[in-house]
Structure formats: C-alpha cells, structure tokens
Design a protein that fits this description.
Blueprint lengths: L1 E2 L12 E2 L4 E5 L5 E4 L12 H18 L5 H22 L7 H10 L13
Antiparallel strand pairs: 1-2, 3-4
Length: 122
C-alpha cells in the first residue's frame, strides 16, 4: 500500500510504501480500521508566498523608517495587503482553497488518507 503526504510550502513526499499494516477493529456498519506507521520528512520549498511576504515586510519597514506613515498604520496596511493577496490569489488556485474535508484530515491525520485494504488482508 502506498500513501502520499503533502503540505503547503513543502515538497510532496511522493509515493511512500507502507509496511506492517495491522488490523485495529471493526464496527457494526462493516467498517474496518487499520493502523500503519511510517516516518516521513517533508522538505521546505521557497514558494511565491515567501517572496510576496518578504516584499511586503520590506515595504512596511521602509514606510516606518522614513516616517512616511505611522508605524501602526503601516503594520495594518501590510497586514491588509497580505490578507487581500491570500484571499484573492488563494481562491484562484484550487489546491490552496479551503476544503472542510482536507482541513479536518490535516488536523486529525496529517492529511494522509489511507484507503481501506481489501478484506483478503485480514
């Protein structure tokens, strides 16, 4: 059985083979649960989001350093620019749009989805 792990700002793991898949339990509605363990290290990737955030940070520091704007207003301006870019550009990229199913899986299983193995494995 193979899995693939992905996370924003990290390189995908590719297909990773799972070994030692162990049956955990069955429920009344004929759903079987299996356990498998594998350590996966994801490598960070510099994405356009990093460069956009860096440019906004430098722009805010420039506004503050030359006293062109009050530092509180400059901070609010930088935050609003980043939020605007996040919500507009994020909606054009379907992989970055909010999906309730994936956000729950990210919290519970690290966004690693395991299909149910065939009943012949038990």
């Amino acid at each position: 059985m193979q899995i693939e792990a992905e996370k924003p700002s990290f390189k995908n793991s590719g297909h990773v083979n799972l070994k030692n898949i162990v049956w955990e339990r069955s429920e009344e509605n004929e759903v079987d649960y299996y356990l498998a363990h594998r350590n996966i290290t994801l490598v960070r990737v510099v994405t356009p989001a990093f460069w956009i955030a860096s440019l906004v940070l430098i722009a805010v520091y420039t506004l503050i350093a030359f006293e062109l704007m009050h530092r509180t207003l400059a901070a609010f301006l930088g935050a609003s620019v980043l939020l605007t870019i996040t919500y507009t550009a994020g909606s054009f990229n379907p992989r970055r749009s909010l999906n309730l199913r994936h956000s729950l899986n990210l919290r519970l299983t690290g966004k690693i989805l395991l299909p149910q193995p065939p009943s012949s494995w038990v």
